[in-house]
Amino acid sequence: MATAHQPPVVAEDEAVAGAVDTAAAAVDTAALESAFDAAVAADERIEPRDWMPDAYRATLVRQIAQHAHSEIIGMQPEANWITRAPSLRRKAILMAKVQDEAGHGLYLYSAAETLGTSRDELLDKLHAGRQKYSSIFNYPTLTWADVGAIGWLVDGAAITNQVPLCRCSYGPYARAMVRICKEESFHQRQGYELLLALSRGTPEQHEMAQDAVNRWWWPSLMMFGPPDAESSHSEQSMTWKIKRHSNDELRQRFVDICVPQAESLGLTLPDPDLKWNEERGQHDFGAIDWSEFWSVLKGNGPCNEQRLTQRRRAHEEGAWVREAAAAYAAKHSDHDKDRRPATPGTHGEATA
Ligand SMILES: [Fe+2]
Ligand SMILES: [Fe+2]
Description:
two-stranded antiparallel sheet; Ferritin-like_SF; binds fe (ii) ion
């Protein structure tokens, strides 16, 4: 916790003793820091009770929060199609997928709680617009084919980003990612299969699939974040082994995976500059319009306002469920309290 590292308040007559303590604490911190660095260098996992630098904790909270928010905001564009899915089979698959995303949010908020930040606090920041979620979810889902394009490209990009996070240095985050990646893999396949069915369908269906891919391709490439040269957090995150690959490396990997898949789908990726580079053994691709990325990130995407408004409303409408769950837990804790040892007082009175 950040407060553990704040200097203690000392009375004047204790100042000398305090100075000695401070010096000792500095030596201790240096020792703790080198133990932490050695553990990271040796690919050992950092666990919640281990000492960690404040900046490492803050970086993880920021990244995990943004990831958790993306999972739950990401439910909206696709949930939009549940009532209009073209068959019972498609509806069941889509419902399962959207539910998975809620589960991913829960695993991730729980991982953030192990760092001392509550889910309530993170949700408050999301609702106040003080924390971000992935900009990709600020684009609209205009047709049924968008459900396929999201599964194939957006979940596909998420997997490319997240598989290396299974080896992240922070234990709870890494373990959450193992399960999330397995489920994302199902999401990617359902999107691919949906697009394949449309691509092989009527000319209108094929055109609908192509149109969805045209709209989702470039925003998917932006999901990997700004180019390495402009990415402010990348280098430190790589040193801490939170990140294992740079934004540009992961983006390139994703492009190379998608090109043959697009061919199998019978669909075209909307980039005239996309071609195999024999020398590099990778695909070259066209310039990304980063002005669009920054504009959407700043809140000017087609759906930013709609997504946050709907999220806040869902939170308010769910208040009675949270209250009922808390009342139920309190009732059971009253019922059991005679059988448990006395617990220390809460902080409630101090802030009242
Ligand atoms: Fe997810
Ligand atoms: Fe997903």
